[in-house]
Fold this sequence. Notes:
The protein is mostly helical and 346 residues long. It has a domain at 51-116. 65% of the residues lie in helices and 0% in strands. The protein is built from 19 helices and no strands. The longest helix is centred in the first third of the chain and has 34 residues, at 2-35. The radius of gyration is 34 Å and the shape is elongated. 39% of the residues are buried.
Amino acid sequence: MRARVKQNIPDSSKRLRLYGAITLILIALAIAVTLLPTGNPLQRCSGIILGESRDSCFYALATSTQNQSICASIQGSSQGPCYSQIAESTLSPQGCLNAASNSSARACVSYIAQATGNASLCTSLGAQYSDGCITSIAVSATNLSMCASEANFSNRQICASAISFNLASSTLLPAHCAQVSNSTDRSAISKILNLTKGAIASANSSVISSISSLAFLPSQNYSARDICYTLLASRTSNSALCANESASARGLCAYAVAGNYTNSTPTSYAQLIASCSAFQQYQGFCAQYVLLAEAIDTKNVSICASFSAALSLQCYSSMAAKYNNATFCGYIRNSTANNACLLQIK
Length: 346
């Protein structure tokens, strides 16, 4: 009997160890099952251990279901954009209030205001930001009266000028160009032209090339009104409209009309210069600006060198700005002008 007992002790111990191991496995499985994603999408996202991946899961779920309440589960920086994206998708300005920052909330409300054409939403942005919002809606709706509600006089001018510019393009009536601002402030001109891209695109490519090369030359006093008349003169082949422009802009206008007569894109600058002879008192202006456009468009610095000192400076500087290349500034010997040229390079 003693021998039998001695033999059973090891077998009992093995069984106990085996049972213990099985119990531990079952416990581990039970724990694992609680960590596995379930059929509920929210629980699936909650079950993800890594915070960044968990946030991405919540973000995707919230935006795909357009459910802003899910954004609250996001712990990281994507929570604000989650609220904004859903607010913009559903055109719900109230949803913008939970955006990540004041600037994000303003951008969200502005987007909805412009998408819905609701200018009253713009006023909630505050005076500093409402004007731009109103301008976008007014220009899209061709609503001049809406511009009058803007707080800043300069912004009202930009708004009304952009609408008048677009009307001139769509109706081909010069009277609308007369309502465009004649300010030579570069910032104002840039804003007006940004709001009239459709009108500019309707002109032929030689005019667009001329404007991009010449309209913002240093020391030149072009205005958005001048550019409006230039585009209209080009589209109607009516050089008489050039007389409505400032003296320094008439050459560009004559060049634009000359481009039409030669059907140039431009491809032949010699043809364009020959066409300038048809513009009598503007012939000199026209020929000079054709050469200037050729120099800039073809990166021909030798043409720049042939101009007077002032025009030569403009030629090199415009070339540097157009191609974002400081090498062209190197041809400018005046240190002040050279530094001004270099400041244009981004």
